[in-house]
Design goal:
Layout: H1 2-6, E1 9-13, E2 29-35, H2 44-58, H3 62-70, H4 81-95, H5 97-109, H6 114-118, E3 124-129, H7 137-146, E4 150-155, H8 162-165, H9 167-178
Parallel strand pairs: 1-2, 2-3, 3-4
Helix pairs in contact: 2-3, 2-5
Length: 181
């Protein structure tokens, strides 16, 4: 375990980091990739919407929450959208309501991480889909501006799930980032 902790790490965060606070101590993490995420605390309006979603999930109506509230915001319009939405629904139902509830509460209660980003000096990739309505391009531009050595990659034709919607383009951006010395 000591060897693992002493090793330099590359951090890729493809999900909302919620209460995650990256271990940016010198020498521990040498680069970071932030995909479809948000460094800011949630607005009051978004916090208010989470309560009924959590209540429905607890009441056994998880599929309804996913279908009506969540999935309409996931993907950009285009061919092949329905199979990806079906896959997202399957993943959500497999994970179950307790995971959804914990994630929703963590997002609701997360602190602003802007200062954390300002303090990271390694190469950073900030990546999002052009049509991401959950974590829009402007939010990613903010993150790229906070990170001193950031590259912003906007994946055309993708929404909140570019790893699923445009995997080749997303992987190419990650490969370019990993090649930075």
């Amino acid at each position: 375990m000591d060897d693992f902790c002493a090793a330099r790490s590359r951090l890729i965060l493809p999900l909302p980091w919620t209460t995650f606070s990256p271990p940016f101590s010198p020498g521990r993490v040498d680069r970071i990739a932030l995909l479809d995420t948000n460094p800011l605390a949630e607005t009051e309006a978004v916090k208010v919407r989470r309560g009924p979603q959590i209540d429905k999930a607890r009441a056994g109506r998880m599929a309804e929450v996913m279908r009506d509230d969540m999935m309409p915001n996931y993907l950009a319009d285009g061919p092949g959208k329905q199979p990806l939405l079906d896959f997202c629904m399957e993943m959500a139902l497999d994970l179950g309501p307790e995971v959804f509830i914990r994630q929703s509460m963590a997002l609701r209660d997360r602190p602003d991480q802007s200062d954390t980003l300002r303090g990271f000096e390694g190469p950073a990739l900030v990546l999002c889909g052009r049509h991401d309505v959950l974590c829009p391009v402007a939010r990613h531009e903010l993150m790229a501006g906070l990170l001193p050595n950031a590259t912003l990659a906007i994946i055309e034709g993708a929404g909140h799930m570019p790893t699923l919607e445009k995997p080749n383009e997303t992987n190419a951006a990650l490969e370019r980032w990993l090649e930075i010395p």
